[in-house]
Fold these 3 entries.
Entry 1:
Amino acid sequence: MTPTRQGSIHLFRFAGVDLYLHWSWFLLAFYGISSRKGGYSSLIWPVLEYLALFGIVLLHEFGHALACRQVGGQANQIVLWPLGGVAYVSPPPRPGAMLWSIAAGPLVNVALAPVLTILWLLGRSAGWGETMPNGYAFITALFYINWALLIFNLLPIYPLDGGQILQSLLWFVVGRARSLMVTVVIGFIGAGALILLALWARDAWFGILCVFILLSCWRGLLQARVLARIAKLPRRGGFVCPSCQQAPIIGPLWRCDKCGQMFDTFGTHATCPHCGAQFPVTGCPECGRSHSLAEWAEGARGAVPPRL
């Protein structure tokens, strides 16, 4: 239940990131605009309100994407859909890199908060509610929308930003697999509480969002189990990935592009033992980056300093 490019409209490309809008977004837009038109004297204002919500979510997701690139990760796609936005970010598997990639999204809302707060307070003191009620209602809505998005996203529930920030902080202490496991367990508890809240409020949209969170927790649990098994596998000495600072796992994890056979590239000096094909670069199974064996060896000597 995660948005993909399938069924999405490509809107534009900015800073190397492609933005897609899922078709179902229009359904929620129609519902949102219809439900808000009673607060304004003209339909143009609820339309502007929803477009402003679109803009705030978009800035939030670009915060994730650009921060991920800053720490050497990959981020080239954002999909907006009725349950919000998803920036497909792949930071290097280091707690600091993940922490910055995730925290940058809510920090966009933090930056917007004082601007919208000042406008809202200025409008209230200037009496805009009487002199320009539509404009004041619009500013008030943006003020509450931004704060609501910020507070909700910072809940320590996986996969919300707050849950992933918590995982990044725990990663420093207990490692990647255990941090994800702890965060997912907290996420299950939080998702259960949110579902009860949705039932009490009789809010179908919020209930769907809670189900999405619950399914994401289940996927996170499966991933944590895989990471725990990977952490127990033996590692080869003398080589370290320059991008993620991880030593390679010993075993036939690499597939030859020529004959299709699996082999351990570090055990055969990047040469397929089945057909003799040689490979100038070797991909890291954990971060996906490719480097020559010389660079892998240089990383083990500490010549490539770790990045955030």
Note: Residues 57 and 294 are 43 Å apart (CA to CA).
Entry 2:
Amino acid sequence: MVFSSLLFLLFFLPALFLCYFCIPRRFRAGRNGVLLAFSLFFYACGGVSYLPVLLCSVAVNYLCGLMAAPGRAQAVRRAGLWGAVVLGLGLLGWFKYAGFLSANLSRLGVRLDLPQIVLPIGISFFTFQGLSYVIDVYRGDAPCQRNPFYVALYVALFPQLVAGPIVRYSTVAQEITGREESLSQFSQGAVRFLFGLGKKMLLANAMGEIADAVFAQPPAFMAAATAWVGAAAYTLQIYFDFSAYSDMAIGLGRMFGFHFLENFDYPYIAQSVTEFWRRWHISLSSWFRDYVYIPLGGSRRSPARNLLNLAVVWLLTGLWHGAAWTFVLWGGWFFLLLAGERLVWGQGLARLPRIFRHGYVLLAVMASWVLFRSPDAAYAAAYFQAMLGLGGGTDGQAVYCLLQYWPEWTACLIAALPVKRWLEARLPEEGTGFAAAVRTWFPKLAALALLTLSYVKLASGSFNPFIYFQF
């Protein structure tokens, strides 16, 4: 089940609202119980056979969190910490990387007979979320939760369960037991959710149709213009697809009184790759910064050690996204760019005009998404050759994609810019004038319009699964 489906919108969500809000607010445990039950059902709809994997992850993090809590013997606390790390990453490694390891060993003549392994939905997200809880408890940055059902609710909460954002326990610890739902927050959350739904159904899916059509072709027979159009379409698709899910997750959380942190901050307006990663998938980049990069020494060590730390982070970041060499190369590409900005061309880049800095980031990021989207490294290399004009074919498909989808291209370019932020800065927050009325009512009316258009798309069968579900 996904947020952009009729099953979710017409049945799951109304049933949850009915069961949840029929319970008086003072019975917080009852409301939490309903939310947990629906969250587990939501996950089971994606594969009931993997519900025990999620519950096992919850149990491991709950028990290890108890062991890692301050006040216990240091040996017990360390055992709790490393138990969570080894068991959590071991579970993730088996489901996500065992097949990849086996395939590469077989190329070296070492055969491992493994059963068919299907990746549970969202395992990378809930594994990292559970680990952050135990690590923060060990460090004293978050309280130890002694109620196993509250730990289960934190890990399994359905808005962010399968595709993030990765929520820190310290962000929602107080809200699990003491949040206050209100009509105002529900309204804000609904507007945010519907804007995310519109981004997914009207923008990401349209760009996905173009990207799928282009990347389905052999690059050797692809014209340069077609290759660039396909790369640009996927660049927009992956942003609007993933940021749409984050918008919907944040909106759903707000409806139930939770305040998740932002996961995207208009990354395509960045003026450097370093800035891009401060704006893209913020919860993941901050996770690796706080739990891998800084513990390794961060930038406090020698330049050589700093480069090693950076390389480790980006190798792990690439592998987190998928068990394939293209993801390793994708992580390596960003390591080279970030290391280069830090040590070689960063100061020179800062002196260039804004338009050149922006163009540099877009080209670098677009190249990374070609790697990310390609089925293997050979295809990616051939695709890059096509982008340089070394392929074949004509430009007819590129012209068709631009003309047929010109409204979606235009909307994507506008939506990728902080237009909403610019308008809000020019409209008063309070008052009774026309500008204040626009600020108050325009988002709500626009959200209803997006709901109508999205429903038309859904009813016509236009639907793509979220890209980040596979991670």
Note: The CA atoms of residues 150 and 176 lie 7 Å apart.
Entry 3:
Amino acid sequence: MSAILYYLIVYPVSFLPLRVLYLFSDLFYLFTLGIFSYRKKVIDKNLERSFPALSEIERKLIRKQFYRHFSDLLVEGIKNLSISKGELTKRFIVKNPEVMTALYAKQKSVVLVSGHYNNWEWLITSQSFQFPHKAMGIGMPLSSKFWDKKINQRRQRFGMQVVHAKNFKEAIHALQGDPVAILTLGDQSPPDARKSYWTEFLNQQTAVLFGTEQMAHQFDFSVVYFIVRKVKRGFYEMELKLLCEDPKTMSWGEITEGHTRLLEKEILKHPSYWIWSHKRWKRDVPQDLENLKLEQKAKFNERFKSL
């Protein structure tokens, strides 16, 4: 059934112009407002916890704006299956690519980190020709092996290498030659509360993936934060910010705090562009949180700061 849906409907539809696909987005948006409110309980709970000072009316407005944005993301994701390099180049612009160019000139590999904010799919597909670094993306596979294979095949058609999160170390060790830029989205819910970095994020204690910071220290990668902003419908601009060139100069938690605070700042300015339908706060706060942080810091320092 998945193969029939992909080959007969989804992939052929992706060749339609975006102006036509946005008509489907408009219909889906109206559908979510009037008939089927996609993950409404999850969204409302996330918004209530993140914006306790806002009124119910204000939070409903954010939910409505999120549905509008999310509907566009769905059709842009479908378009991503066949969008041309030329069209991506026009629709997804990097504002300050010199940040990456300067690191490449120094033969520095990079961890590119941000969150599920605006259109990250077009970045995954275009990263290999946006920057001089070899492109690699790390993520968890989809539950459907068929859709995971097909979507990643299309993501990789211009040179991106998509790697399972469990196998990224082997993939990095296998690299030879030019520096690599590894794309990570650090706002997913971590699988293990006790291996997470805990911090205040959107008015609540939040478990944050520690992988970006650990990877930077383990492989001596620079860290660049990026944010994708919507210029207008179907057009995005990406801005880069160097968090650190030499991770050895950074203390425990400094990199993770850096990219988490920057993402939070952007969400607070324009909340509707973040994925509120995601069950972000699934992990219970450990009762011994302060002791856990001390243990984590000690292990980190023993591993990376003892030399």
Note: The chain has a mean pLDDT of 94.
